[in-house]
Amino acid sequence: MKNNNKMILLLGLMAFLANGDNYAAAPLIINISKDLNLSVDVAALSVTAYMLSFGLFTLLFGPLSDRYGKVKIINIAAIGTAIFSILGGFAFNLTSLVVFRAMNGAFGAGIFPVTLALVGQSFDDKNRHKAIGKVMGLMFLGGATATALGGILAYLGSWRLVYIVYGVGEFILAMIILFTLERDKAVSTKFDLVDSYKEPFSNYKFMRLVFTIFFVGFSVFGSFTYTGQLVQNITGYNLLIVGLILSFFGVGTVIGGRVAPKLKMKLKGNFLVLAGIIGGVSLFLISFVSSTIFIIISLFGFGVAFIFLQSTLVSSVQDMLPAKKGTAMSLASFNMFVGGAIGTNINGRIMNTFGIQQIFFNTSFIILIVGIVAAFFVTSFEKEKLKV
Q1: What is the domain-level CATH number for residue 322?
Q2: Which of 11-25, 82-96, 139-153, 306-320 has the highest mean pLDDT?
Q3: Contact 370, 276 (CB under 8 A)
Q4: HEC assignment per residue over 233-265
């Protein structure tokens, strides 16, 4: 257990930095657009590039981690994402920014899903949900810190400094992981990308649950990119205060991750329904309130709803494909980040046509439906598992 705790700490810290690198775009997108002389929706293409690249490359890294070991893949990915995070700070136009962020996302694909797969295979059924919740809690605490840190650095200096600071931090931690984390054994004797996905694609119940994660990404990542612009529009605060306000989303994910296991045991099938309701109400409030206090409460609820949905769905897809957790996490992350990329792109167009509040109004209904549908799929799977 001691080694497992060390693993959770190191991988959680790497996820903390890598996710912060991703989430920093929410408050920074305003300054990026001004510095590079772009509109906000065009600057958001860098976010779309990151998420789309991330989603696509998870399909590669999952089977690679099953073949060559998850720790080895995490080491390579951590060094790569650190390098391209630093380069992102030196972007000089839209093209360079999109390319650097896309490469950052590509290597990031070898951190998030493979880390969760490694944690999933290292704990038994009783402790897996709690362990995943801890890692995801640190992951999204990184998101919370990013909006605050990003706002501070951009306010005092430049948005470029944010990506450089995160990249340096990721590189240092990558070196620590390289020399301290024990290598795991490969669970597959060969690498065959097509063959790796035959089993999951032929499992209808697995695929429908994984596809639900697409709409989680669409709802959460697809809208969170624009929260900085929304808060600034409503409050008129500077980037420093906006970043601090957005940090309450991350606080919600951390606290939600801690209470999720016990609450899930009590509510059982209704747990995900509750997540959908909390998310729906929170986003609905964000779409029309003008009070800073209500915005903070709504962002907190949004974060709670996300971690409730995501930690449960991630744990469930691993349970449904126990022999290939890396591949299972690849498909889960592919759907989440491609959903986020598509959501970011579509929401940019909605913002230009109907206004930024419309994004959150629409998403409030989507996340409510996702919670209800996910509850049905997970409950159905858990009932079948008890029969075996």
Answers
A1: 1.20.1250.20
A2: 82-96
A3: yes
A4: HHHCCCHHHHHHHHHHHHHHHHHHHHHHHHHHH
